[in-house]
Design brief:
With about 240 residues, this protein is α+β, with helices and mostly antiparallel strands. It folds into three domains: about 70 residues, Nuclear Transport Factor 2, Chain: A (Roll), CATH 3.10.450; about 70 residues, Nuclear Transport Factor 2, Chain: A, CATH 3.10.450; about 60 residues, Nuclear Transport Factor 2, Chain: A (Roll), CATH 3.10.450. The strands form two sheets. An eight-stranded antiparallel beta sheet has the order 1-2-3-4-8-7-6-5. Strands 9-10-11-12 form a four-stranded antiparallel beta sheet, covered by helices on one side. The chain is globular and about 50 Å long. The protein starts with a helix and ends with a strand.
Length: about 240
C-alpha cells in the first residue's frame, strides 16, 4: 500500500511539474524577443500583407514593437507589447481616397450617418466625440468611441460615407497623479489659450519618448487642432493644424 501511495505521489508531482512547465513555455512563446517575431505576429493578423517597417518604442516604460504593413491599398499599423506579445493598437487607413471621396458633394447629414454606421460596426460602444472637419483637403467625419478598455477612431468621407480609417487602442487604466502633473483640466485651459473659441474633442495623457504629455484635440470651423503640452511644466511643445 505504501508503494502504491508513493507511485501516486510521484505521478502527481510529475504532472504538476509538467503543467508548470507548459504554462511557462506558453508565456515564453507569446513573448516577442525580436523584430522578426513581431513581424510574424503582424502577418498572422493581416495575412498576405507586405511588411514596410518594424520599429521599437516605449509605452508606459515598456518596450513595444510597431509594425507597418501594406495590403490592398491600405496601410496598417500594429503595436505589440514585447513582454507578452499583446496587441495594444491596430489601425488601417486607405492610402489613396477616390476622387468622389475627396471632391464629391458633402452630405448634410453625413455626421449623423457616420455615427450610426460606427455604432453598427462596434456594437455596445459609446460615442465620446464626433466632428466634421477638413483634413488633407477633404471633408471628413471623425467618430471617437469607447468600449471596455478600448478606444476607437473611425474616419469617413463626408461625401461618400466610405470608411477611410479604422483604429483601436487599449487605454491604460493608470491615471496620472494630480500632484505630479498639471492635470487634464489645466491642459485644456492652456490649449484653449492657443486656439481661442475652439471646441475640445478629447484630452489624453501620454508618454512621448519618455516625456509625460497631454494631447488636446480641438476643432474650430473646418479645422482640427492638436496641442501637445508638457504634463509637468504646462509648456506647449507642439501645435498641429489639419485643414
Amino acid at each position: 500500500m505504501k508503494n502504491l501511495w508513493k507511485k501516486i505521489s510521484i505521478c502527481g508531482l510529475l504532472f504538476m511539474a509538467f503543467s508548470v512547465t507548459c504554462i511557462f513555455s506558453t508565456a515564453e512563446a507569446k513573448k516577442l524577443q525580436n523584430a522578426n517575431q513581431a513581424e510574424a505576429a503582424a502577418l498572422k493578423k493581416v495575412p498576405a500583407a507586405t511588411v514596410v517597417e518594424v520599429d521599437t518604442d516605449y509605452v508606459d516604460g515598456k518596450l513595444v514593437y510597431e509594425v507597418e504593413l501594406l495590403k490592398s491599398g491600405k496601410e496598417y499599423n500594429l503595436e505589440y507589447r514585447a513582454s507578452d506579445g499583446k496587441l495594444l493598437k491596430y489601425d488601417w487607413e486607405v492610402k489613396v481616397p477616390s476622387n468622389k471621396d475627396r471632391n464629391g458633394k458633402v452630405k448634410a447629414d453625413a455626421l449623423k450617418k457616420a455615427k450610426a454606421d460606427a455604432l453598427k460596426r462596434i456594437k455596445g460602444a459609446k460615442v465620446t466625440a464626433s466632428s466634421k472637419t477638413r483634413d488633407d483637403g477633404m471633408t471628413q467625419c471623425k467618430i471617437i468611441l469607447k468600449k471596455g478598455s478600448k478606444k476607437y477612431k473611425l474616419v469617413y468621407s463626408a461625401s461618400t460615407l466610405r470608411l477611410l480609417e479604422y483604429e483601436w487602442e487599449i487605454v491604460s487604466s493608470s491615471q496620472p497623479s494630480d500632484s505630479q502633473y498639471i492635470g487634464a483640466a489645466k491642459a485644456k485651459t492652456i490649449a484653449l489659450k492657443e486656439v481661442p473659441d475652439a471646441t475640445v474633442i478629447k484630452v489624453e495623457f501620454d508618454n512621448d519618448d519618455g516625456v509625460a504629455v497631454y494631447e488636446v484635440t480641438m476643432v474650430k470651423g473646418s479645422y482640427e487642432y492638436e496641442v501637445k503640452i508638457d504634463a509637468k511644466s504646462g509648456k506647449v511643445l507642439e501645435l498641429d493644424m489639419d485643414d
